[in-house]
Amino acid sequence: MSAATAGPAGDQPGRGILLMLIAVACFVVMDALIKWLSATFPTMQVVFFRSLFALVPIAAMVAHQGGIERLKTKRPGMHALRCAVGLGSMICFFHAFRVMPLADVIAIGFAAPLFVTALSVPLLGEKVGIRRWTAVVVGFVGVLVMVRPGLDLFEVGAGIALLGTVAYSLAMILMRDLGKTDTTTAITFYFTMSATIVAGLAMPFVWVEPRDLSDWLLLALVGLIGGVAQLLMTQAFRITPVAVIAPFDYTAMLWGSILGYAVWGEVPDAPLWVGAAIVAGSGLYIVHRETRLRVPRLNIGTRSPPRR
């Protein structure tokens, strides 16, 4: 499901909501393409193309925002750690798409705000009040409803998606810290570049030759759509308060359900909808509390470079 440091809140709610809706829809289309491609190509190959072609719109963003000056950093070690955790999250999610219904993976990814809130206490020393802790606990109940711990293939896949969500949350924590000194442009660029390089090193060992031009186009498209969607979401958070547009990230569940049914005949069951509703409600309450308390936060919805 994309992660930019929320810039100064503007006052363009209509435009911000529209950009958010388009960005979320684009990310779900990208997720569907990843699921489709994962049936033919190994995970690392899909990661490689996802990252390589995402560099195209990201490079355009770098040029538009001032060029190489925007990429300066004094914290390469922190970037390396964030990239390693983010890449691990991406691999987990891509594998989960291979073995699970599209909407199920998206719904589990909604738990990210819960983990970010919980992990920000020991890792960043932030204070979380009883109300937000209650929302986290309730949200984790929703996660258990969705995951249904057990031993069959579906549940193993759910565990991998949940592991990806935890890793994604750790990446968000690191981004929250990096955002104090580095630009959103730099954080996004270094992750995407590092993912391209690491996945590229694996290509001689896992490469599967695309069958025809359509395979090449889909592999390129998955990265281009993701890069463009990230730019749209970044702009949405810059011009509109977080509390206004964050709820629209959950429209991903609707799009995921529609695409999952249309392409693969997948129908989310009742426990998934119930669990997703609990998690979404808890996440929205956390956003509400953090906004009221003016806690610095990232776009910790499900759509972000660390995840996809």
Characterise the protein shown here.
With 308 residues, the protein is mostly helical. The chain has one domain. It has helices at residues 13-38, 43-64, 76-99, 102-109, 112-124, 130-147, 153-178, 184-206, 213-239, 242-245, 252-264, 270-293. Helix 1 packs parallel to helix 11 (252-264), helix 3 packs across helix 8 (184-206) and helix 4 crosses helix 7 (153-178). It is globular, with a radius of gyration of 18 Å. The termini are close together.
Record the SSE blueprint.
Layout lengths: L12 H26 L4 H22 L11 H24 L2 H8 L2 H13 L5 H18 L5 H26 L5 H23 L6 H27 L2 H4 L6 H13 L5 H24 L15
Helix pairs in contact: 1-3, 1-9, 1-11, 2-3, 2-8, 2-9, 3-7, 3-8, 4-7, 4-11, 5-6, 5-7, 5-12, 6-12
* Uncertain ranges: 1-9, 296-307
Based on helices, strands and strand pairing, what is the structural class?
A: mainly alpha
How many beta strands in the DSSP annotation?
0
Shape: globular
Number of helices: 12
Mean pLDDT over the full residue set:
85
Number of domains: 1
Helical percentage = over 70%
Report the portion of residues in β strands.
under 5%
Instruction: Note the run of SSEs as H and E.
Output: HHHHHHHHHHHH
Distance between the termini: 7 Å
Radius of gyration: 18 Å
* Biggest sheet details: none
